[in-house]
Amino acid sequence: MIFKKISAMIAVGAVAVSLLMPSATFADGLNAQGWDYVGKSTFTTQSSTVKSGGGNFQFCFSQTSTIVPGKYGLWEQDGDDYQAAGEVTIRAGANPCAVFNDIGKFVDGSNKRAEFLITKNNSKTATVKFYD
Fold first, then answer.
1. pLDDT tens digits, residue range 17-70?
2. Given this model, what pLDDT does residue 126 score?
3. What are the CA-CA distances from residue 46 to residues 12, 54, 93, 102, 116 (Å)?
4. 24-131 placed in CATH 2.60.40
């Protein structure tokens, strides 16, 4: 009986924590339908930089089996200056895509684009595709 109560409390806590993380959501599916492909990067700790027109931004692993679990940060780069734009934790076997919503405030410069890259907290090689 106590085990069931503890399990229920853990489940409720996990849902509550996930609802408190507004910076990113997980996209449905592997093919990023309705998104414009803007690049691909294979990296260990920091991806290459890609340009975004604002709105929402997404990165995806090619399939669930290629997910590299860890904490991923989205950064906007202006020259040597980096500004945190969001963060998401990716788990093994989870949805292979993460969406960062409402990132239009990072659009700047004469090209009217945001320059985004992602970082992760481990040194395992990951390959992701970026969509705008």
1. 333 333 454 444 445 578 999 999 999 999 999 999 999 999 999 878 889 999
2. 92
3. 34, 21, 22, 22, 11
4. no
Concatenated DSSP letters of the chain: -HHHHHHHHHHHHHHHHHHT-TTEEPPSSSS-TT--EEEEEEESSBPPPEEE-SS-EEEE-SSGGG---EEEEEEEEETTEEEEEEEEEE-TTS-SEEEE---GGG-BTTTTBEEEEEEESS-S-EEEEEE-
Phi and psi based region of residue 79 (left: phi greater than 0; alpha: psi -120 to 50; beta: remaining): left
| Confidence band of 86 (pLDDT split at 50, 70, 90) | very high
**Beta-strand pair 126-131/57-60:** antiparallel
The tokens describing 66, both together, are 């290629």
Kindly report whether the global pTM for this prediction surpasses the value 0.85: no
pLDDT of residue 95: 84
- Domain map (residue ranges) of the chain: 24-131
